[in-house]
Amino acid sequence: MRVAIVGNSGSGKSTLARKLATDAGTPTLDLDTVAWEPGKIAVARNIDDALADVRDFCSSADSWIVEGCYTRLIAEALRSGPLFLVLDPGPEQCASNCRSRPWERHKYSSKEEQDKHLAFLLQWVEEYYTRNDDMSLVAHKALYAGYDGPKQWLSTLNEVIQPVVETEQSNRTTGPATDGS
What we know:
The protein is of the alpha/beta class. It has a single domain (about 1-175), classed as P-loop containing nucleotide triphosphate hydrolases (Rossmann fold). Helix content is about 50%, strand content about 15%. The protein has nine helices and five strands, in the order βαβααβαβααααβα. It has helices spanning about 15-25, 30-35, 45-60, 70-80, 90-100, 110-115, 120-125, 135-145, 160-175, and strands at about 1-5, 30, 65-70, 85, 150-155. Strands 2-3-1-4-5 form a five-stranded parallel beta sheet, with helices on both faces. The longest helix has 14 residues, at about 160-175.
């Protein structure tokens, strides 16, 4: 199984990736781990280094899951022809998920430190629908429109768990297909 997942902060990307990885025993790459300097909040890595890390990860195994909000990094993973999922549950659900997010140890030294950034994160979630950068709805829509492999645009995680497994199994026997979008 090869799956690339993109969406707004709080859309459920990490939750879905963990579920699929646990069920299939598949390695997962959280793009936050290659997009940012380790241990430094909001210090971006060199994009060429981050892209190289994505390429290395995708070529290291036959089965993998890549998830994040970074269009350029997801585009690199799409070169391997995975199932491409866009999670778009809407701003209210994303904000709710952010408020109830467990401590992200790979990003913050404590839950308290993480909580100090919640107001910024909630603003970021809201602006996803109006900004025009690499991590925006506009960029994700363009990437989705240009991808000719198997893909699904989803508004809830419930729409995806079983269909992802079925789509991947079908692709192994019949080759990729698109949803017509």
